[in-house]
Amino acid sequence: MTLLISSTPTFARDIDGKAISAKVLDEVREEVLALAGQQIYPALAVLLVGDDPASHVYVRNKLLRAKEVGIRSLEYRLPETASQAQVLELIAQLNADPTVNGILVQLPLPAPIDEQAVIHAIDPIKDVDGFHRENVGGLVQGIEVLTPCTPSGCMRLLHETCGDDLSGLHAVVIGRSNIVGKPMATLLLQANCSVSVVHSRSVDAPALCRLADIVVAAVGRPALIDASWLKPGAVVIDVGINRITSEFGNRLVGDVDYASARTVASAITPVPGGVGPMTIAYLLKNTLIASRLQRAAQARGQQPEDDLALN
């Protein structure tokens, strides 16, 4: 496939995550209305433990978007002193509640709670973050499962920018985290891209990136990737959100040096306003997918946790 953009841009165009996420939310809203006509009301449970200010902001935004699209939201708050046993007990109750379709535990959790133990306690078919080991394994196998929200949102940005068919494009993912890097690489492979994953042990990472038609930066280092890392005309998806202090005060920047990169790239996500809004949009989309998968399992007379494939 030939990338549907100029190979010699003057300045990259911004990929408007706010506008594209609004399209996703409209799609979710339409499906919620259709389900309401069948007396089906998808519900998302959000669990917040402790008093982390950023977590409170994230949860508030998620609940607000859920309300806007008509998804019923349930908020559960536990104090900073809550034990792991209390968290697991609440998750068990939500797993057993047939009116709850999605469960999201806001991370990070206070120490000494084991985040992995909490994540893997969630019923995989209600795990709207897509972090459960069974969902991770199903994604790699190409089974329909709940997929991590940020990589799913990044794929939508790429399709909106480059077209439906990404076959044959070379994609480089910078970072190999379980939350973004690894699932992102898997989704790009499923889209028939040739995929390289660049990480801290890679030799000459900039040279590897200069081969890429698509660069997805998810490494957590502010302004690491500049124009010298990019092939002319590359599409750049910047997942990074880093708070820095400068002479202009506190501000958010990505993993990509936006001012430099946009002189070489053909399209780029700004920070903020790029990937961030897509993550919440796909959280709500995952809630609808979870509801559908659960209904399919129940129609076959199965308990949801007994069947992950659901194809």
Keywords:
single chain, 311 residues, alpha/beta, 10 helices, 40% helix
Shape, principal axes of CA atoms: globular
Low-confidence runs (pLDDT<50, min 5 residues)? 305-311
Return the average pLDDT rounded to an integer. Answer: 93
How many H/I helical runs? 10
Strand order of the largest sheet: 1-11-8-7-5-6
Beta-strand share of residues: 15-25%
Structural class: alpha/beta
**H and E order:** EHEHEHEHHHEHEHEEEEHEH
Number of strands: 11
Largest sheet: 6 strands, parallel
Describe this structure in words.
The protein is α/β, with parallel strands linked by helices and 311 residues long. It has ten helices and eleven strands. Helix 2 crosses helix 10, helix 6 crosses helix 7 and helix 6 crosses helix 10. The longest helix is centred in the C-terminal third of the chain and has 24 residues, at 276-299. It is globular, with a radius of gyration of 20 Å.
